[in-house]
TrEMBL record:
SUPFAM superfamilies in alphabetical order: EAL domain-like, HD-domain/PDEase-like
Keywords, in A-Z order: Kinase, Transferase
InterPro entries registered for this protein in UniProt: dGMP_Pdiesterase_EAL/HD-GYP, EAL_dom, EAL_sf, HDOD, RNase_Y/CdgJ
Protein's organism: Planomonospora parontospora subsp. parontospora
Pfam families named among the record's database cross-references: EAL (PF00563), HDOD (PF08668)
GO function terms (MF aspect): kinase activity
Gene: yuxH
Record flagged with keyword Cytoplasm: no
Protein known as: Histidine kinase
Gene3D superfamilies, sorted: EAL domain, Hypothetical protein af1432
Alphabetized PROSITE patterns for the sequence: EAL, HDOD
Domain EAL residues, every copy: 1-217
Amino acid sequence: MHLADAPVDSGWHRIHIGRQPIHDGDGALVAYELLFRSHSQAKGATARGAEATSQVIVNAFSEFGLERLAGPNLCFINLTREFLVGELPLPFDSGSVVLEVLETVQIDDEVIEGVRRLAAQGFAIALDDFVLGNDHERLLEVASYVKLEVSGIDPELLRERIAVCRAYEGVHLVAERLETEEDLEFARGLGFEFFQGYLLGRPRVLSLDTLEPSRLRHLELISKLADEDTDIDEITEIISSDPALSYRILRAANSAATGLWSEISSINDAVVILGTQRLRHWVTLMLLSDVVGVDGDVDNERMSHVLMRARLCQLLSRSLGLPSDKAFTVGLLSGIADLLGVPAEELIAHLALSHDVSFAIVEEGGPLGSVVTTARAYESGRLPETGDAHGEDLAHAYLKAVDWSMNIVTGV
């Protein structure tokens, strides 16, 4: 079963993101603009504030993954004022992302300073729906792309806007709102380098079924990250208590935009790779993005089952001398795959997991895989209690795992 076809009662919620292509002069695909969409049939954005931008960022990086959304192509992401001036964080590095300044942003000295700071960090800046007379000209000195509407615009006015932009070296012009062949040919004649519009491709909504993280865990994690005395073990424990949050953090750590591509064996590895500051940024945006809307509540019983397997694998690993953090991650991800009803190899396809961890999840192979096999068999009743010490240890570990997971889910 594909992720998008997961059963409706599996404790997930559906997320969406819009994607509109941008082409070069030869017609080749070079980029996508990522757009907020509230549902799979949405024709436009129903929210445009910081919450919508946060959801696009979180969904793109920690759910879909940029490599799945855009492959080797650039991604244009719209930013509101809060992100431009630094009131809300951008938890990713410059690279394949172009930061788009919306035409609705009121330009003042604070915005100018913020955009310059982002450009100095290596981010490419795009000006959306550029017009003259609203102070967006002040950003031309740091812009890499300027998007100009073509359809319905007076030709002389458009030529005037182009002339102003051409005065700045290194600015690439993007013709947008191309609706007819005449629009496209006119834009080509004006010397535009890139092209976007309904004629070349309407925004397509991509949907994905995923687990909904606990807002309580988000808040708890943020409070811990704000405490200088909190150590990595405490942070890892909070993340590990929520399967959906764990998966998001693993995806964020694996994102190509972090500038790192390391083999990750555990939640602890992900925390170390991201660092506390970037982790705090991600969790802040995750909380904000979840404000936009949730399709349904997570089934506590199913969520508890995922956590129980992860904890049981962890407990069993200790008696075998295996790394317990790896065992927890293996149990967690195998449980998430079962919960969503998707093949384990599909779930972890975009996670740079170490070989022993991925082998254990997909094939239940190796020492870690035997732990998963034992846990899965016992929880399903296929492994009879033998009455010996081993059987008693297993039964005790199972009961401890059940008790721990129920306490986590219910908050008791």
